[in-house]
Amino acid sequence: MLYSFFTMFLSRKANEGLLALSQEDAMPISLRQLAYVSGLGFGFMSGAFSVVNILADSVGPGAVGIHGDSQHYFISSAFMTMAVILLHMFWGVVFFDSCEKKRWWSVAVVVLSHLLVSCLTFLNPQYEGSLIPAYVIMFLMGSWAFSCAGGSLRNLKLCLTCKDKDFLLANHRPR
């Protein structure tokens, strides 16, 4: 999370410098875009390391499920990896928005929820003890990130029913 803070701070300074040198009146990348891309990048890297560790476990020595261990190691690890990838994206959006608006309590919530989800893996091999709370936190953080990004229930309803005229696919014309 400390790295996210420095990334946001450095990118803000870089955008201000680029704006001063540029002929354009707008910044080349918005803070919301940077938060999304940064969070998704952190999530993919976390997922890649998680998958590599799981593949290393599958090679051996030994086999998962012997001596009374759970047979659901690989599928539960896949679901936990998916949750952590999405959580990193949501944490990035909420973290950047909180830093921009100087809501330090929100930054603390992001850091503490990150710590909580990381510590939930200590509950394995009781996978329901780690997966269910991780997915509850993912749903809550996803809703919060959607709100931080400017989303609302009205926008979601218009998008899902395809009634929004400003939606990209609604105005698509074949070439």
TrEMBL record:
It comes from the Eukaryota. It is a multi-pass membrane protein. GO terms for cellular component: gamma-secretase complex. Component of the gamma-secretase complex. GO terms for biological process: Notch signaling pathway; protein processing. The keyword Transmembrane applies. This is Gamma-secretase subunit APH-1. Belongs to the APH-1 family. It is found in: Membrane. Keywords: Membrane, Notch signaling pathway, Transmembrane, Transmembrane helix. The chain crosses the membrane at residues 34-55, 75-96, 103-123, 135-153. Pfam families: Aph-1. The keyword Lipid metabolism does not apply. Potential subunit of the gamma-secretase complex, an endoprotease complex that catalyzes the intramembrane cleavage of integral proteins such as Notch receptors. It comes from Lepisosteus oculatus (Spotted gar).
